[in-house]
Amino acid sequence: MEAFLHQVFSGLATGGIYASLALALVMIYQSTNHINFAQGEMAMFSTYLAWSMIDAGMPYWWAFLLTVSISFVAGVAIERIIIRPVENAPVLSVVTVFVALLVIFNSVAGWIFTYTIKTFPSPFPEQPLFGNRYVSSHELGSIGITLLVLLALYLFFRFTPLGLAMRAAAQNPLSSRLAGIRVGWMLALGWGLAAAVGAVAGMLVAPIVYLEPNMMSGVLLYAFAAALVGGIDNPFGAVVGGFLVGVLENLVGAYVIGTELKLTVALVLIVGVLLFKPAGMFGRVFVSRV
Amino acid sequence: MALLEVTGLSAGYGAVDVLREVSFSVEQGGITAILGANGAGKTTLLRAVCGMLRRRGSIRFDGRHIGKDATEDIARLGIAHVPDGRGTFLDLTTEENLRIGAYVRRDRDAVAQDMERMFGYFPRLRERRRQQAGTLSGGEQQMLAVSRALMLRPRLLLLDEPSFGLAPLVVRDIFRILRAINAEQGVGVLLVEQNAGLALDLADAAYVLETGKVVMSGTAGTVRSDEAVRRAYLGY
User: Is the pLDDT of residue A288 over 70?
Assistant: First the structure.
C-alpha cells in the first residue's frame, strides 16, 4: 500500500509537469491550430539558462524568476520574428519551422553546454516535508508550484481585460480586430506565456530527469498524450490529462510493464485517443457539412 | 464636412475587383443606406472601409485618410462594424462579448454604465448575461452584435444586414434602437440592407449598388420615389 501511494504521488508530481507543458501546447494550439513541436526544447534551453545563473552563484529563486521572465520575452520574440512570417503559410511549412526550431535549440544547447549530463538543484529540502513517508519534498513542491502557476493563469485569463482579449483573439480573430484588439500581439503574448510556463516545467523536471539537451523529449511526448487525452483545444482538459497521464504512467510502469517500457504508455495513449476519441475527454467535436 | 467621405473606391478579393470606383458619404450624425441585391458588393463595401481587404481609392473619416490603416487602428478611431454573420464570440458569455466591444476604452465607470444601457435597450441580453453567447438565438445574437459595436462608443456605426434572418418584431426593436442612438448621440450610421423599405425608412441618404457600381443615389425620399428602384427593390 505504501509503495502504491508513493507511485501515485510521484505520478502526480510528474503529472503536474506534463500538465504545464500540455497547457503551453494548448495555449498555442487554440490561437493558431498548430502544435509547437519545439515547446520542449524551448523549456530545455530555459532550464540551461537557469543552470548557468545558479552555477554562477545566483540564489535559486532569483534564477527561477529571471529565467521565467527571459523565457517570456524570448517566446514573444520567437513569435514576432520567426513564426509571424509563416502565419498564413500551409500547415506543412509551419510544421517544418517548428521542427527546425526544435533541432536548432537542441544543437545550440549541445554546442554551448555540451551533451554531458548535469545535475540540476531542487529548491526543496532533502528530507521529506511534514515527516510523511510517501512523497519527497521535491515532488510535493513541484505539485505546489504547478498548482500555483495554473491558478495564476486561470485568474489571468478569466478576470483581466488582457486575458479576455487573448481568449477573444484566439476564438475569432476577425471580430477581435473589429473591436480594436491587436491580434498579432495577442498571439505573441500567448507564445511568451507558453514559453514561461514551459520554463517552469523544465526547471521542475530537471532534478528528476537530469539536465541534458535531450531531457525534454520524453516529457514532451507525455505532454502531447496529456493534451490529447484532455482534448487538444481545452486548457482544463490538458491539465486533467497531465495529472492523469503522470499517475497512469507510474502505475503501469511499476505494476504492469516495468519502467523500461514506460514511454510506450504515452504512445499507446496518443494512438488510442486519436483512433477512438479524437476530441479527447473535454474537447470539442467538430462537425462540418460537406 | 462629411463624417465619412469615400471617393473612387475599388476593392475585392484576390485579383478580382468587386467594387469599381464607388463614391459615397455619411454626414455627421447622418444615416446612409446602401441598397442592392445579393452579390452587388454591399458587404465588400463595408469590409473595404474597415480595411479587411485589398482596396484603392480615398477613404476619409472626419477628414483623416484611413485608406491604408489596419482594421484594429480604424476601430480605435471610433468606427464600429457589425459584420456579416454577426461576429459573435461563441464561447464567451454575453457580458464578456460586451466587454470585448469596450476593450480599447479606458473609462471603466462609463463602460459599466454603457453596459447597463445596452441591457436597458435589450432586456433579453440581461437575462442571458452569464450565458455562453453561442447558445443565444439568432435575434439575440444580432442584439448582442449591435450592443457590442455600441460599447466602443463609436462615432460611426457600420451595419451589415442587421435584419437578416430575424423575426419582424426583433427587426422592429433593433431599428427603433438604432434610430434612438442616432438621434440622441449623433452616431453616424452606414447601413447595408436587402430590405430596402426598412432601410429607406431609417436613412436620410441612399445609394443603390449594382454589380459593384453606384447606379443611383440621393436622399432617401428621392430614391424611394424612383420608378426603377420601386419595382426592383421595393416590389410594388
Answer: no
Rounded Cα gap, residues A132 and A142, in angstroms: 16
Q: Do B89 and A171 touch (CB under 8 A)?
A: yes
State whether residue B155 sits within 8 Å of chain A by CB. no
Q: Does A170 lie at the interface with B, CB-CB under 8 angstroms?
A: no
What Å distances lie between residue A61 and A45, A49, A66, A119, B146, CA to CA?
A: 18, 13, 8, 17, 49
**Residues with Cβ < 8 Å from B131, sequence gap 6 or more?**
B93, B94
**Cβ-proximal residues to A99 (8 Å cutoff; 6+ apart), any chain:** A37, A38
Show which of residues 130-169 on chain A sit within 8 Å of chain B, judged by CB atoms: 161, 164-165, 167-168
CB contact under 8 A, B87 and A172: yes
* Cβ–Cβ contact B150 with A under 8 A: no
pLDDT of residue A2: 80
> For chain B, which residues score pLDDT lower than 70?
none
Mean pLDDT score of chain B: 92
Question: Complex ipTM, two decimals?
Answer: 0.93
Q: Which of A165, A172, A180 sits opposite B75 (nearest CB)?
A: A180
* Per-residue pLDDT reduced to its tens digit, A182-235: 999 999 999 999 999 999 999 999 999 999 999 998 899 999 999 999 888 888
Chain centroid to CA B52: how far?
14
CA distance, residue A281 to nearest chain B CA (Å): 18
- Inter-chain touch B50–A175, beta carbons under 8 Å: no
B80: enclosing H helix or E strand: strand B79-82
Distance from CA of A84 to the nearest CA of B (A): 16
User: Hunting for cell 513564426 — which residue is that?
Assistant: A83
* pLDDT per residue as tens digits for the range A29-56: 988 888 999 999 999 999 999 999 999 9
| Residue A201, pLDDT score | 95
Put simply, whether A178 touches B (Cβ < 8 Å) is yes
Residues A265-271, mean pLDDT to the nearest whole number: 88
* Residue A289 pLDDT greater than 70, yes or no: no
CB B61 within 8 A of CB A137: no
Identity of the residue numbered B216: M
| A5 Cβ under 8 Å from any chain B Cβ | no
Distance CA A167, CA A185 (A): 13
pLDDT at residue A100, as a whole number: 95
Q: What are phi and psi of B8, to 5 degrees?
A: 60, 40
Give the pLDDT confidence of A71-98 residue by residue, as tens digits: 999 999 999 999 999 988 898 999 999 9
Nearest CA in chain A to B149: A179
User: What is the chain B residue with the closest CA to A172?
Assistant: B89
